[in-house]
Amino acid sequence: MEKTEDLSQDLVKGDVSAPISDQLPSQLKVEPPKTQSPITAVGTKSTAITAGVPAEIDKIESKEIFSEFREHSVAEFFKKNRQMLGFSGKIRSLTTLVHEYVTNSLDACEEAKILPNIYVKIENLPDQHVRLYIEDNGPGIPKQFVGRALGQMLAGTKFHRFVQQRGQQGIGATGGTMYAQITTGKPVHCRSGIGDNNIFECDIAVDLKTNSPKISNMVEYTGKYRGLTIVGEFSEVKYDKSEYAPFEYLKATALANPHAQITVVEPNGERTVFERAHNEVPERPKPAQPHPLGVTTDDLINYSHHSKERKLSSFLTSNFARISDSKVDELRKLCPSINFDKMPRELKWEEAEALVNAFKQIKWIAPSADPLRPIGKEQIEKALKNVLKPEFISISERAPKVFRGGVPFLVEVGIAYKGKSGREKSDGFVGLDVKRFANRAPLLFDAGGCATMEAVKTIDWNRYGLKDIENMPVTIFMNLVSVHVPYTSAGKQAISTEEEIVEEFRYALMEVARDLDRYISGKIRDEQRESRKKAIKRYVKQLASDLPYLAGRGNTPEIEKKLIYLIENKYAKIFDKSTRLTADEVKAAKKEQVEAEIEE
Amino acid sequence: MEKTEDLSQDLVKGDVSAPISDQLPSQLKVEPPKTQSPITAVGTKSTAITAGVPAEIDKIESKEIFSEFREHSVAEFFKKNRQMLGFSGKIRSLTTLVHEYVTNSLDACEEAKILPNIYVKIENLPDQHVRLYIEDNGPGIPKQFVGRALGQMLAGTKFHRFVQQRGQQGIGATGGTMYAQITTGKPVHCRSGIGDNNIFECDIAVDLKTNSPKISNMVEYTGKYRGLTIVGEFSEVKYDKSEYAPFEYLKATALANPHAQITVVEPNGERTVFERAHNEVPERPKPAQPHPLGVTTDDLINYSHHSKERKLSSFLTSNFARISDSKVDELRKLCPSINFDKMPRELKWEEAEALVNAFKQIKWIAPSADPLRPIGKEQIEKALKNVLKPEFISISERAPKVFRGGVPFLVEVGIAYKGKSGREKSDGFVGLDVKRFANRAPLLFDAGGCATMEAVKTIDWNRYGLKDIENMPVTIFMNLVSVHVPYTSAGKQAISTEEEIVEEFRYALMEVARDLDRYISGKIRDEQRESRKKAIKRYVKQLASDLPYLAGRGNTPEIEKKLIYLIENKYAKIFDKSTRLTADEVKAAKKEQVEAEIEE
Asked: Theoretical Cys-Cys bridge with A390: which of A191, A419, B10, B373, CB 3.0 to 4.6 Å?
């Protein structure tokens, strides 16, 4: 590496007759070539070998290279890059399958306002094959959509909606079909009923070359089944009970979805029911309009050019949350050169960019929580208490914020201390456990690059007296609730470290850390106080009988009572601010306590 | 959570008249529904609320839900999930752009056997826009391919090739075009010449709805330029000089590509040339046939069904590496039920699966390194010495192995100690630095979930006397060389933790760790020995003059000489095995040394 002044004179200026930028209508200007060396003469297939400069005798022509140019389907891409869908490692692959089907079932049930009842059965077959049977009581899939829903990638009902869902890409279930195909050569089998007394069953595969569904063996009959059943045979998967395996995945799912009943039958025949803890379907989130904060210029152009509104002003008020007529007036003042009466489809990029910048200068009401359905403090507390029986618990639910594209989100964070909190580490001791969720779906993998862990890492735990949190019996529960979860990959196991999301997790973590700190240090103070009090009390009797003798006045019981009162007052429990009593209340309490003790 | 015996009697068996499996030609059998509760009567839109069981009064029908069913293009998918392409955070987004264009340039040059000369210029424009100008001296793109190469995802020359390349997905450059579009509304501008004295320039955009290119402002002229130039204007990017920024990226690229000359002009006008250190284009890797180890059943079916060979046996010998006629004979013995004379396209899944299992029982020659072009021990050593000036260095290059799909790969690992090794940590001290590469392209992000770091984490450094490696001035260089790099996401910043890859990295790390251990502990032993020797030598003079007196015989100079010889022999430097002298050499050396010292 060598730093030099501008040596552009070293570079041949190329042989371009006129300045390119003059010939071009383009806004972008290219420069004369800087990479051509005078010796590797261009256009001739190498001439002589000049000292120090290698020849290009064997140079291969561009035309030859491009003779291999091909186009590929998204299914071929994900077949080749199956690890991007979560299919890497046998255990993880099985968990990915369970994850994809179960999140689809939960989404479908919630959308149809049905209390989910999901049945998962995993069987070991010969030749290390595994059969996965997943049945739900959801709305089912209509016959005309079943092929594309289970056998075509990037197709579905969720991709374009502005509402919180677990699934969002239209890849997951078809990924499962693909994985059955490439590992066992078999299609998946499905049964669906939409509640009209008709049931159908069929086999579904993906034509990977064209990313289109292949349906076979269609059978229809009448019967009382509403829901979707998937049966698939897979290889390159493995069942075990490790922390990354389906059982733990379903347990975590149950934790974050107390309204769901999940039954799992393991290969050994053991059947476990994660019982429904809460008999209400979470209210269906309402699709929301994007909030002006975080809308990109590109979004604004797209929305405006597809708008049927006649004026830019009415387009703004009718397409965005929180834009009122008075806000449009503010925008007019900030962007005097924009005509707010023109057709929205005539909005130019520069104008849209100016509007986006103006959005950032205006005070807005926070985004509505309408499209978001958090689990809620109460439910999280119930669930954590139920599972961990902790000594202390604190939950923080932050107000909605937006990230890029005006996407509303909020974070929920809980901290639990002692009881069964924490996880066993490889050294046999219990340490910090972080349970990560996105829209209630557990994230078991790829913790390293996840916004949740990023936030945990950046907290200065020392400030909260939790310096050694890695080795404390602490469980942190983190849930991102968002209209769109920015996963780092299609495998949906880590949340991209978007600044706004990490920041919100940080705030929430600080809140619960502060609470835990207060609890632990209060406990320590109380213990210290108590032991000092006891130590001093030991001298009371002696002192009370000696004092009258030394002073020549007073009587022992009276002095003993006063001494105890003094000690109790000095080492009174200090309540934390939130529950602090008034000075009078404290005095009254102390008095009562002292009297009670004396009576003993 | 509650464990119960099989309570299937609790579940309504459904109302299916005949066993489904009897009606079906499918190999898969479904079970009677298990998720239907008798009260939430199916087919009727909820009847009565029965105690404890919630009604489904507001249930929404499947048909309503599916009215929103849509299909989407892969470009729309990546627009919505831009973070999957590495577009998250302003600094990372800029590095991603530089990465995509520069790796394409390097690939193209290598493929065309041209010594790469790459020029990167980054300019700050008003409104926080950034212009990126990247020019190479590669083979250029023929006019008829330029739209698809830069404006269509999943199209390119690399996806299907069985040869090592940096790029492999046909997404990167089009991702850049998309990012220009969605952040500034502008197409990218390009200039291309393929060396036939014709140059063209045009603007390229992606139609995101259809994932197809939009070319505009095409201009053609004659001139001497061969290569590709891209000029793009981007927003939501930011230039700085942090360790994750383009400058460090290019520095790392230069480190792993000593045959490339890379010039970078920063926004402040500073121009840095990473000079070419090695004047030879790496030999073009040869496309290889897949190795039988690691071929999946699905691959085998695909290859065989597209084969033009007339017999299964000749299909095997002509399509796979290392399968000879005698190996086919071994296979015949292992799979007696398979007819090796039948047409390959008649191969059934079960047979293919049996063949794949048989592959695993046969002894094979390791895969050829033909399709792989490692940087090589010598080049890595040169590069690390050049940049880090370390006190000690050790490089391990492992033999090729395969992972899933018979994909050949190998790993290269280097360790450097002291000098400028290590990186400054946030506490101001120097600690372990890991430089990660995949096919010579630096990986700056997502270290957490990467196979490289996974391997580093699992090493018991304690065993190598490197317990505190996190706080040592050590740089570890890791390069995966592979025909297909299993990236965790399309952003290509982390290698999926495939078992075989992690394992190879582990072995290589152990090798270099052992070397470093030997060096450091040798150094410590030497130092200890030296100080003991000095301590004892202090007594030599005194002892040499006292001994003749005590013994009544001998003379002081003689005794002194002998004593020194004894001491020197006892504390002789122990050379490590690789440079160990013969016993005679050691004696000679010692003698010389003693004599020299005595002469002093």
From this structure: A419
